[in-house]
Amino acid sequence: MISLITCSIKPDICKKMLISVSKTIGTEYETIVFDNREKKYGICKVYNEAAENANGDYLCFVHEDIEVQTGGWGKNLIEFASKTENCGIIGLAGGYYAPRNFVSWRVDKTSPMKVYDPAFSNNQELTYKYCNPSNEVFSRVVCIDGVFLFVKKKVWLENKFDEETFKNFHFYDADFSFAIAQKYHNHVYFGMDVYHFSAGNIEKIFCENMYLFQNKWKNRLPYCLPGYKISFRQELRAASSAFSLYRKNGFSRIESLKRIYRINGILFFIVFLVKKVKKIFCDKFLIRSKNEKNFI
């Protein structure tokens, strides 16, 4: 049996999700809805508390703002998880590679995913995001997006959500899936269509949790699946993305640089700093040249 677990603050939206699940899951299940409007727990605490009370052998942690469109998914996931050796988490979107300066599971355009997410537009139309490089039904990944996390209860018992480190709603999924990836194989499932009605927010607390994740796992990062190579250029791009997020969310330039240094060490930091200074110089030169051209 599947125990479907969700953290809810909008009962009307949650109800729609539960209706879609009842029509599509295709197997025995129970629902555990944690009403978080008053307690305002972090999602790790919510999920752990709910999972403790779950009766199913399989746990499915889902966001309340989704609607499932494809039938029989529950039966299919149980069958795959029960027959696949070392099966960890099954999700809808994930990445092959986790850089040392981890910002997101989506490192590049080859990251496996199949989900309908909001576009950044006035009418908030859903955009179909699909990437299946190996043309598989189940594609192995490292970190998984938290919109949908399906896992055996016994695997969760070995690797509970880290509610001591991640006390709010960011990077709980990266941490949970990365911890499980150290022993098990995580997968993205391409056999179901899911509508997801929110894009999420990148704010200062997002950056704080990003740093907590990087610091917690810095002895295991960077990390990639067998057959994939760790690229120094990719590491530099990830560090640059982390630096930009810090600056955009109110961190000083000095504090942002300190965090890059603490995560990466002196040699990487020197290369990163040289690249950063070179880019600033080139950008200023191009702007000056453009202004001089316009003046002439």
Show the helix and strand layout.
Blueprint (H helix, E strand, L loop, with lengths): L1 E7 L2 H14 L4 E7 L7 H10 L5 E5 L3 E3 L4 H11 L3 E5 L2 E2 L1 E2 L14 E6 L7 E6 L6 E4 L1 E2 L3 E5 H6 L13 H10 L3 E5 L4 E3 L7 H13 L6 E2 L7 H17 L4 H12 L1 H30 L1
Parallel strand pairs: 1-2, 1-3, 5-13
Antiparallel strand pairs: 3-12, 4-14, 6-11, 7-15, 8-9, 10-13
Helix pairs in contact: 7-8, 8-9
What report would you give on this structure?
With 296 residues, the chain is of the alpha/beta class. It contains 9 helices and 15 strands. The strands form 6 sheets. The chain has a 4-stranded mixed sheet with strand order 2-1-3-12, with helices on both faces. It has a 3-stranded mixed sheet with strand order 5-13-10. The chain has a two-stranded antiparallel sheet with strand order 4-14. Helix 8 packs antiparallel against helix 9 (266-295). The longest helix is centred in the C-terminal third of the chain and has 30 residues, at 266-295. The chain is globular. 37% of the residues are buried. The model is unreliable at 283-296 (pLDDT under 50).
